[in-house]
Design a protein that fits this description.
coiled coil; Exodeoxyribonuclease 7 large subunit; exonuclease; alpha/beta; 5-stranded mixed beta barrel; exodeoxyribonuclease VII activity; 5-stranded parallel beta sheet; OB fold (Dihydrolipoamide Acetyltransferase, E2P); Exonuc_VII_lsu_C
Length: 449
């Protein structure tokens, strides 16, 4: 039994000490289990129970973190929950205050990121591809004023191109206020760019962090604000392995803040070296050009003569050309006269009257030859025809018939060669040397009609 003066704790004191002990000893943990009893009151918080085969744990996912869970939480889903173990003092309930919920085997934030990325890509939010000025005259940097990103950017810009003007636009780069602040800053900068044309590029940047830390740069409205920015935007969020929707929506992406500064401005040392090389090339080209022109001037000076000499030379050339022209004209006239004489003689020989006389003589001779040749040809053809007629008569069957023979034919026109080929009463035709006879076959012993 306790003594009378023993100090008793109140229920609230005990619950507070238990909450503090749980939070200090366990800290942040990952717990995997099955969802059960998921409820969503009007406050926006999400309450559920995480259980396995032997135990269960009550969990609370407050509204500020619930908006990062894109997929709905459903009873029976197996998830991994990151949070801190605590105790709800008014009821003494032991619970897990959830910070993030992932599908078991796949990060829920990453799944939400991929779904939102696919939808924005289909809408054309990632179609920006404008060229950024290099170097920009006035660079506007949206980032945290206390982060390492602005220090890296300023250090690289100062080393590579100190002439660039940089204006820091301080905005939160983590948490629920980050995306609205950056959207508002982008809108303000675009409105002010009409009044200050010297502003020509925007850099949105921050250092590395977890997926939850960088989640503000995956905000859909921030991606659309970058798309509609009149000023070209470069995004450099996190490390090389980190990729956000702001990177896809920007006109250009850099893997780190330092790399962004290197892409935005040239290296003055490289430019100075290139300028020195060009200066040396220009000096060599200038000397070579001067030498060439000096030689050309000497050549032209050597060719230059007094105008009187040139006129005298041209006068002599003119006289020579005139003499050549006169001689060429005389020779051409003589040639044409000889050619005309030859044509006249040929024409005289081929006068139409003379050709008619010659043609008439040739025609008379041809007529005389024709008249002499026709009787001879007729006589020759008659003799040949008589010889052919005699040969034909010698082999003709009609000659045989003329000697008293006859050819018998039946009704079908076939020649009858044997008596056996006929029958009594059959009518035959007899072809004689002159004319034909109609006959009838009689039986043996009968006399013919």
């Amino acid at each position: 039994m306790p003594t009378r003066d023993a100090t008793a704790l109140s229920v609230s004191d005990l619950n507070r000490r238990a909450r503090q002990a749980l939070e200090q000893d366990l800290g942040e943990v990952w717990v995997e289990g099955e969802l059960s009893g998921v409820s969503r009151p009007a406050s926006g918080h999400v309450y559920f129970t995480l259980k396995d085969e032997r135990a269960q744990l009550r969990c609370a996912l407050f509204r500020t973190r619930a908006r990062f869970v894109a997929a709905p939480l459903r009873d029976g889903d197996r998830v991994k929950v990151r949070g801190r173990v605590s105790l709800f003092e008014p009821r003494g309930d032991y619970q897990l205050i959830a910070e993030a919920v992932q599908a078991a085997g796949e990060g829920e934030l990453l799944a939400a990121f991929e779904r939102l990325k696919a939808r924005l890509d289909a809408e054309g939010v990632f179609a920006n591809a404008r060229a950024l000025p290099c170097p920009p005259r006035h660079l506007l940097v949206l980032t945290s004023p206390t982060g390492a990103a602005i220090r890296d950017v300023l250090a690289v810009l100062g080393a590579r191109w100190p002439l660039v003007r940089v204006t820091l636009i301080p905005v939160p780069v983590q948490g629920r206020e980050a995306a609205p602040a950056m959207i508002a800053a982008l809108g303000l900068l675009n409105r002010q760019s009409a009044l200050d044309p010297g502003r020509d590029a925007i850099l949105v940047t921050r250092g590395g962090g977890s997926l939850e830390d960088l989640w503000a740069f995956n905000d859909e409205h921030l991606a659309r604000a970058i798309l509609h920015s009149r000023l070209p935007v470069m995004s450099a969020v996190g490390h090389e392995v980190d990729v956000t929707l702001a990177d896809f929506a920007a006109d250009r992406r850099a893997p780190t803040p330092s790399a962004a500064a290197e892409q935005l401005v040239p290296d003055r040392r490289e430019l100075l070296q290139r300028l020195r090389d060009l200066e040396r090339r220009l000096a060599r080209a200038q000397r070579a050009r001067l030498d060439t022109e000096a030689q050309r001037l000497d050549h032209l000076r050597a060719r230059l003569r007094h105008p009187g000499e040139v006129l005298a030379f041209r006068r002599r050339q003119l006289e020579q050309l005139d003499g050549r022209l006169q001689r060429a004209m005389a020779a051409r006239l003589a040639t044409e006269r000889r050619h005309q004489d030859r044509l006249a003689r040929r024409l005289a020989r081929r006068a139409p009257g003379q050709r008619l006389v010659e043609a008439e003589a040739r025609l008379a001779r041809a007529r005389q030859r024709l008249q002499q040749a026709m009787p001879r040809e007729l006589t020759r053809h008659r003799e040949r025809l008589a010889a052919v007629s005699r040969e034909l008569q010698a082999v003709s069957p009609l000659a045989v018939l003329g000697r008293g023979y006859a050819i018998l034919e039946n009704d079908a026109g076939r020649v009858v060669r044997r008596a056996a080929d006929t029958r009594p009463g059959e009518r035959l035709a007899a072809r004689l040397g002159e004319g034909r006879l109609a006959l009838e076959v009689l039986p043996d012993g009968d006399a013919a009609d």
